[in-house]
Amino acid sequence: MAMQFRGAAATKLLDCRSLRRDKSCALGNLLSVRGQHDAPSAAVYELATQAGFKRRNAPTDRRVFDAELLCGAKQRSGLRERQEMPKVVPVDLCEFSPNHCAAIGNFHTSCHRLVCAHEGAREMTDQIIWLNAPGDITQFHIEHHRCEPPGDGEIKIRHQAIGTNFLDVYQRRGIYPMPSYPAVIGAEAAGIVDDVGPGVSMFQKGDRVAYAGPPVGAYRSTRNIAAERAIKLPGAVSAKTAASSLLKGMTAYLLLKKTYDVRAGTQVLIHAAAGGLGSILVRWARSLDATVIGTVGSSEKAALAASYGADQLIVGRDADIVAEVKRLTNGIGVDVAYDGIGGDTLLKSIRSVRPFGMAVTIGQAAGAIPPVPVEELRPGKALCHPSIMAWCADIGQYREAALAAVRMMETGIVSQIGAEYRLADVAKAHEEMESGRSAGSILLIP
Question: At a CB cut-off of 8 Å and minimum separation 6, what does 208 contact?
């Protein structure tokens, strides 16, 4: 419902009466007007009182409502007497409105939504990152909802780690638009099976699992997914390793074995060889006895790529990639080039490929790919644009790639973890991913 606050814009306020619908968990907003010396309107106070809120005298410039959720307990007149009262738990406070502020005691933050619950209610709430519309990192917002039980054929996973990929950035920017908005993005995560829906026999509570691919929606603390899309994790593979490496490992499998059959003696060009996907491609290609030429942006990243097994490295964003590749291959060119950079780098990749070789475009971190003149494909070069999401739409192909990726993880072919952020700090994670500062994968931790 819309409420008018004096001195501020009208703000949508959660109907406090909805707090009564559950006796163990309630979601509310404790609001006072930022920068104003007047209290919220009487209508807000009346509505809050009906829901079991209790007004108290806070510092002189504001009035704060303190949630006193009865849950069958006797209401006491003094706020300090809480032996029989539920505990008020602020759970990952998140921004609700720029025009107001919230407070419990002396704690203040930019208009935050609070989950008021008794002990243990944290496990009953799901923190969800919503994308309001295509755009920059300001389009993210956070909400908390009660967890729904898994449906037929589903399991509920309590996420321990969530992987990020440039796919997420493309979806956030609208390069790969979502069907509707607001939307939840995120293509991979790992965690613990928290509940099992009807008809599921392959999993039980406590199993360690991971998943990747469509449908997206991993940017949340818990999630119900089809059981057939979950992969059991062996003891040697941690949740963080799986969340950072599953989708990238599946992509590497698609690129190295399905798009182009890399084998002993194949000469491979891998751009961003120190990155999350690049590091897996380098290691996996070397395990196949291929010869790997990698490109990196700095000497620090060159040292990392060399440690992954790259045979030769081209260092620097301004390096003449085509000339260097021709020099390193005796003027012939590589058999296959994997390009996740995009922009004008794709033409350089095509020109670095030998006759009847293949250039594979798998991303556009540097920007949109310009039109490619067909003359660039002479003599007999191939250009391929595979999609791991399209591949994974078929459940058989999905499990084939996922199990191959997990087997590689067991041998140590994983993506280095470059940074970790709290789930609530998803905007910072995207900012770092787009900056190119981090070598390796970036994780979100609920």
Answer: 190, 191, 192, 193, 232, 233, 239
